[in-house]
Amino acid sequence: MRLLLFTSEFYPLRGGIGTYAAELARGATELGGDVTLYAPSYHQDLADDDLKCFPFRVIRYAGHRHTMKNLPQKLQIVRRAVRSETFDIIHAMDWPFFLPVHLMAPSKVHKLFTVHGSDVNEMRAPVKATIISLVRLFSGKSEILANSNFTRSLFNQHFPDIPPHKVKTEWLGVSDFWFQPAANRSETRFKLGVADDAYVILTVGRLTPRKGHLSVIEALSRLPERIKEHTIYIIVGPHYDGEYTSKVKVAAAASGCKTLFLNELSDDVLRDLYKACDVFCLTGHTKLNGLVEGFGLVYLEAGAQGLPSIAGNVGGMPEAVEHGKSGLVVNSNDADSIAQSLCELHDLPRFRQALADGALERAKILTWRRCVAASYGFSSHHAKWLQPHSSPISLTSDITQPQNGLARRSVLGAFASVGLLKTKILAATPTTILPLKQAAARVGLLFGCAFDKIAISDAAYGALIKTHAAILTTDYHMKFKALRRNGPEADFTIADSLITFADAASIPIRGHNLIWNEGNPDWLIKLPANERIEWLERHIKEVMGRYRGRIHSWDVVNEPFWPGHKKPGGFRDGPWYSALGPEYIIKAFQIARRTDPSAKLVLNEAWVERSDDLGLVVREELFKLLQDLSVRGLIDAVGLECHIRPHYTRNFDILAQFIAKVSTLGIDVYITELDVDDSIFSGSMSEIDDKVAEIYGDFVRAITKAPAVKILETWQLADRYSFYQDQRKGTARPLPFDTSLAPKPAYHTIISALIDAGSQPVGVVRTPQH
To answer: Which of 301, 246, 238, 309 is nearest to 270 (CA)?
Structure first.
């Protein structure tokens, strides 16, 4: 097999793209491929170095930056290369070579284009996106490789016209070098002036805001003194951004922890440092115009030396680090969460060792050999060569547990049961009970709730929500009728205040909902069909446009099914259905996708938790609709409401099976409106609360077995503001907290079920949302 590779970054410049190019070229050569790689010269004569260092042919061209500048030069480079020889595969390894390879490479040659997270951000710029469309980039015999599911999703989101099947994920790998024996841990520490008993935290990466150094330093400042006094934070990486570096150094000086800045290190020294540290911590940052980590190769390199990681829930980080297996995934913007994880890894050395063992196993699986074989299609007779570090393990299965380690939640549960898990990190924590969002985060879930203006006017309730919710959904005040009750002109006053509340608390928000066949104002219902169709588009564009870039996800269409209306396919009747039939759903999602490509698009539905005929019909018809939306690339997740009414039969195993079926479509599942109607129960208040709690426990245990479930939300958080109160005159008790905002048995059962989830025998690999 003859391969021609083009990269805009390479040795001697250090970085992720250069490493990617070198390792794929090296791996393909060792598999028997004939590889030629074009790389920048950086205005140096590197011919001798290339011959000594690389087993493949390197041809240097003038230039030194990862950029689209000098496009004519790159066109000539590709043109000359493809004219001189014939190749089986031509691979543009980063964005600057996409257009040259597309325009100059022969049409019959198989072309590969590797998309990195930073590339997608470059490509989506208006001028560049227009060029991509005009030249029909990626058409013909071509394939797109993404370095993570996050990058693939981002690419599909911004380039919906490109068929999703042309884009596949190939995770990056870790080279043999990082597994080689490192220097003695004590010797390395001695050279750094670090005591053997110090708690050493390491971050490796350029000093740039998207790496999240400031979040880590803020977390360090919140550690209890007993930990802080012997904690040392080491930052390794080039200081290209002087202003940001200055901010980091000022913050570090005020943190109360000793901080070492080591600039760049050779790989040999860095490998020794990985071995000498206790925790690798790179959390990233989420509010930087989409510039986040596409994967995070450094987590694997650290893992090759048995160093567990704390990663952020942004970009592709959660794919490089398996939460609870090779490290912990935290909210990147939540210093409390980062600090809590640092405390746990300090106080629980057995748990830290279990994660260290898992990190090593993770690195053994995600090798460059696997990436090379999958990217270039080398045959299965190379299988033995592909995995020299570990016994055969399915890449789609859970990582084998280390012999001397326990699953994370099992370890935490064991320590908690004997009273050893008592870490307190913040004097200002609003409550001494474990926040639901923290318990959920440990199994890769975002816990949240619905909220409305009462969370603003009732300060105590607002504080409760901020303590326990990692995501929020608007209850009523973004619905069509709420915004346009008195006529076509929308009143966004309350909706704006809800956005402000969530932003101030740094909690992502879900918009609920854009289009629903119920709860619409009379003036809309009375309009002729053609005007209602116009309003469907106008409403979506106006509401989504107003909050563009500020909404985590939109419930684009709410509750499209109600078999009681006797419409074909079980659809719900109403002003939108009567105007367009089922096509109103497709149209709504198409408009939504165009209006805010950054938001996740959700279809929200009820009844699926029921095991009676109604539940069966809705699940069947809903799946058909999800298939259609998925094929069109219009949907990112389905919301399952789960207002559990014990009056009707239910089987949460059937629900879990349905979720597993939905996951085959490649979309996520959100539990959006969970509560338990207690009106059927009799007995004392405590007896009723226990019955409600039992149902919550059964439900949470069922859905945590499904990796497709990414969000778990209750419909409001406390009984005081449940919508059932209007029906029950203040006696309803369907939620985790009571009318006085105190935790009920339901709260404790949910916490217990989330902790128990870690000891499941099945392989649940859940990617936390951000």
So the answer is: 301
